[in-house]
Write a structure and sequence with these properties.
- The protein has helices at about 1-20, 35-50, 50-60, 85-100, 110-120, 125-140, 260-275, 330-345, 365-370, 375-405, 425-440, 445-455, 460-470, and strands at about 105, 140-150, 150-160, 165-170, 175-185, 190-195, 200-205, 210, 225, 235-240, 280-285, 310, 325, 415-420.
- It is α+β, with helices and mostly antiparallel strands.
- The longest helix has about 30 residues, at about 375-405.
Length: about 500
C-alpha cells in the first residue's frame, strides 16, 4: 500500500506542475466608432431614401472600408454603373403596412367619441404607420403631444424619429426627452430644443452651441415654459429593438444588414454591366454594307436601329463573305445564384422573400411558402407587442393632457388597442387544423373559436358564436343536480322534523 501511495503522490505532483497556468496580462483594446447615433441615423435614412447618387455621395465622405461597393472608385476608363435595388425601403414599408393593416380601432370606453375626433384630426392610422417605418430604419422615436389653437382645438400628436431627439435617462428610466427642430432666420440656422419632462416643458433656442432669445425667430416668440400637476410627461418613446452599440437607444433593422445591402447592389450592378458589355455585335464585310441607292455612299450606322461594325471583305478563294452576329456568353445561372444568396442575407431574420412577392424557389409548394412566412410573422409579432404597450399609454397621455389643458379633472379610463391575426397560416389551413383537433377531442368549442378568430372578434361575439355552435350540434348545458334530485324529490317537499332536520 505504501508503494501505491508514493506513486499517487508523484502523479498528483506531476499534474500540478503540468497544469500551471499563467494569468492573462492586462490589455487595453481601443475601438474607434466611425459614427455617433445621429450619424448612423443619417446613414440609415440615405439607405431608406434609395437614391444611388446619394449613396455614392455618402460613402465618398465616410471614413472606413474603401473596398465597399458604394465607397470604391472605378479605374479611369473602366467605370461601372452603380445600381441600387431598393430592398431596404421595401422591407421597412412592407412591415409597417402589414402591422397597420391588422390594427383595429382604439377602444377608449366612455370617451370613444372624443378619441374618434382626435384620431380623425391627427390622421392617427397614417401617423402610426409613419412612426413604425421611421422606428424600423432609424432605431427609435417619440410621440409628442402639444396644443396649437391656431390649427386645432384638439391635441396635436406628432412623431419625432430618433435623429431629431435626445433621450435623458436616470437608472434606465426616461427622465426627459429633448425634441430638436431646425429654423432658418436671416440665412442663419437655429435649433429649437423642447425639453419635455414629467410636469414641465422648457424651451431653448440655440445656434452653434450658444443660447439665443426665442424672439430671434418671430414664430417662436409666443412660446413660454409650462408646468402642471399630474405626474405625466406629454411624450411617449417607441422602440422595437434595443441597440447594443448606443446605450439607451433603439436599434435599426438596417444596422446589421448594411454590408448585405452593399453586396446585393454590387451583384446586380455587375450583372447589368455584363449585359451591357455583351450586347450583340454585327460584323458586315465592306462589299455588303448598306449604301445609298442614289449615290452609292455607305450609310452611316444608326445606334438605335442600324448599328454595325465594318470589316474588310475577304479576298481568299472559296471563302464567301457573310454577315456575322456575335454575342458574348453571359453566365446567367452564376449571377442569379449570387443575387439570390445576397438577397437571402438581406432578408434573413427580418422577413420572407415571399412577403415581398419574390419567388426565388420556383418549386416550393404552399406549405413551404407558409413556413418561410414565419420570419415575417416573428418580426410582425415583435412590433405588435411593443405597440400594444405604447399606443394605450399614448392615448391615455393625450386625454390627460387634454383634461389638463381644459382645466378639468383627469379621468382614468381603460384603453385597449387590438390587432387582427396576420394571414399566416391562411384561414383555410387554420380551419383544417382546428377541425382535426376538435374532431380528435383535444380542443373544446370555446378554444377552437378563440384560436380561429383571436383578436379579430370581441369577446361578446365569440360567446354568442360558441352558443350558436353548441345549439346546432345539440350540446346542452345542465345545472349540477342538487341533493334529492337523483331520487326525484323536490327539496321543498322533504319532510322536516320538529328539530328542523330531514326525516
Amino acid at each position: 500500500m505504501r508503494f501505491f501511495d508514493t506513486m499517487a503522490d508523484r502523479i498528483r505532483t506531476g499534474i500540478k506542475t503540468w497544469l500551471r497556468i499563467q494569468p492573462a496580462q492586462n490589455a487595453t483594446i481601443n475601438i474607434r466608432e466611425t459614427l455617433d447615433y445621429e450619424g448612423n441615423a443619417i446613414k440609415n435614412r440615405i439607405w431608406y431614401r434609395g437614391e444611388s447618387e446619394e449613396l455614392a455621395q455618402l460613402y465618398s465622405q465616410l471614413d472606413g472600408d474603401r473596398t465597399r461597393f458604394w465607397a470604391a472608385s472605378s479605374t479611369k476608363g473602366m467605370e461601372i454603373r452603380k445600381l441600387h435595388v431598393g430592398i431596404p425601403s421595401l422591407i421597412a414599408d412592407m412591415l409597417a403596412s402589414i402591422v397597420v393593416a391588422d390594427m383595429n380601432e382604439v377602444e377608449a370606453g366612455s370617451r370613444q367619441d372624443e378619441w374618434d375626433s382626435i384620431a380623425k384630426e391627427n390622421d392617427f392610422i397614417e401617423l402610426v404607420k409613419g412612426a413604425i417605418t421611421d422606428t424600423l430604419y432609424i432605431g427609435d422615436g417619440v410621440f409628442k403631444v402639444s396644443f396649437d389653437t391656431t390649427l386645432s382645438a384638439l391635441p396635436i400628436i406628432e412623431y419625432y424619429p430618433g435623429d431629431k431627439i435626445d433621450i435623458i435617462r436616470n437608472r434606465g428610466r426616461v427622465k426627459e426627452i429633448v425634441f430638436k427642430t431646425a429654423y432658418n432666420e436671416n440665412n442663419q440656422e437655429y435649433v429649437l430644443l423642447e425639453h419635455y419632462g414629467i410636469g414641465f416643458i422648457r424651451y431653448e433656442l440655440t445656434r452653434g452651441g450658444k443660447l439665443y432669445d426665442l424672439k430671434t425667430v418671430p414664430e417662436l416668440a409666443g412660446l413660454n415654459d409650462i408646468e402642471w400637476d399630474g405626474g405625466f410627461m406629454m411624450a411617449v418613446p417607441l422602440t422595437f429593438y434595443k441597440s447594443a452599440k448606443y446605450d439607451g437607444r433603439g436599434k435599426s433593422i438596417f444596422d446589421s444588414k448594411i454590408d448585405a445591402f452593399d453586396s446585393l447592389d454590387e451583384a446586380w450592378s455587375q450583372w447589368m454591366d455584363a449585359l451591357r458589355k455583351n450586347r450583340t455585335k454585327e460584323y458586315i464585310p465592306d462589299n455588303m454594307l448598306p449604301r445609298n441607292p442614289y449615290t452609292g455612299e455607305i450609310l452611316a450606322p444608326n445606334p438605335f436601329d442600324n448599328a454595325y461594325i465594318k470589316t474588310d471583305a475577304s479576298m481568299t478563294e472559296g471563302v464567301a463573305n457573310k454577315i456575322e452576329l456575335i454575342q458574348g456568353n453571359i453566365p446567367h445561372e452564376s449571377y442569379l445564384s449570387t443575387y439570390i444568396t445576397a438577397l437571402d442575407l438581406c432578408l434573413q431574420g427580418i422577413m420572407s422573400p415571399s412577403t415581398l412577392g419574390i419567388d426565388v424557389k420556383k418549386l416550393d409548394n404552399a406549405e413551404a411558402q407558409r413556413e418561410k412566412e414565419k420570419a415575417t410573422l416573428y418580426s410582425r409579432n415583435n412590433i405588435v407587442n411593443q405597440l400594444q404597450k405604447v399606443l394605450p399609454k399614448l392615448v391615455d397621455i393625450v386625454f390627460k393632457a387634454y383634461d389638463t389643458y381644459n382645466l378639468t379633472a383627469i379621468e382614468d379610463i381603460d384603453i385597449d388597442v387590438t390587432f387582427g391575426e396576420y394571414a399566416n397560416p391562411s384561414f383555410e389551413s387554420q380551419v383544417e387544423t382546428i377541425s382535426k383537433a376538435k374532431t380528435g377531442g383535444i380542443m373544446s368549442v370555446e378554444a377552437s373559436i378563440e384560436e380561429l378568430y383571436g383578436d379579430t372578434k370581441d369577446d361578446e361575439w365569440k360567446q354568442e358564436e360558441v352558443a350558436r355552435l353548441k345549439a346546432e350540434q345539440g350540446i346542452t348545458e345542465m345545472d349540477e343536480p342538487m341533493a334529492g334530485d337523483e331520487a326525484g324529490i323536490i327539496p321543498e317537499e322533504i319532510p322536516q322534523t320538529a328539530e328542523g332536520g330531514a326525516t
